[in-house]
Amino acid sequence: DSNLVYSIRMPPREPWETLLYMEGDCDDQSNLVVTILRGLGIPSYQEYGMVFVSKDFRLEEVSDNGLLNTTMVGGGGHAWVVAYIPPWGWIRIDTVFGVPGDWLSHIVSIPYYTYPTVVMGANTGEATQVAWLGFENQITSARLKYQILYEISLGEQV
């Protein structure tokens, strides 16, 4: 199988690591695609935010020997690619939503259009792995327990 395997790791992988090990999560895979697109001369960047999946969705992650705990209810963090494709302009491309090996399902499953999404920011060139390592080192050196709870729900329709 020549497809990348979805795999979460903290800190995020560099694009070369994602390609070498053929695995990565949404930010790893989108960083790889941005690197490839930029190499081809296509302007692109990574966008990230929160995606609502369903009221029953729950994901718990524990890392750094139990010091960093993340619980996501209803949805969670996600990252995707934004690329400039003439004549349409800037379009969002998701690298992980959809059925593996079925490219049409990936095109149809762009989360910005399929799921309620809040865009929180963009990575346009800074080294996210370096920033994450700094954060992770501060947590472990101070022995802080950092707990994050994201609860995402749909409000009433107005």
Structure report:
The chain has 158 residues and is α/β, with parallel strands linked by helices. The chain has one domain (5-151): C8orf32 fold (Roll), CATH 3.10.620. 29% of the residues lie in helices and 34% in strands. It contains five helices and nine strands, in the order βαβαβββββααβαβ. The strands form three sheets. A four-stranded antiparallel β-sheet has the order 7-6-3-8. Strands 4-5-9 form a three-stranded mixed β-sheet, with no helix packed on it. It has a two-stranded parallel sheet with strand order 1-2. Helix 1 crosses helix 2 (26-39). The radius of gyration is 16 Å and the shape is globular. The mean pLDDT is 77.
Q: Secondary-structure blueprint of this entry?
A:
Layout: E1 5-6, H1 15-21, E2 23-24, H2 26-39, E3 44-52, E4 58-63, E5 68-73, E6 75-85, E7 89-93, H3 103-108, H4 111-114, E8 117-123, H5 128-142, E9 146-151
Helix pairs in contact: 1-2
Task: Please supply descriptive tags for the structure shown above.
alpha/beta, C8orf32 fold, four-stranded antiparallel sheet, three-stranded mixed sheet, 9 strands
Distance linking N and C termini: 47 Å
Query: Care to count the β-strands?
Result: 9
Strand content: 25-35%
Mean pLDDT across every amino acid position: 77
Structural class: alpha/beta
Helix content: 25-40%
Stretches where pLDDT is under 50 for at least 5 consecutive residues are none
The number of distinct structural domains comes to: 1
Count up the helices.
5
Concise summary:
With 158 residues, this protein is an alpha/beta fold.
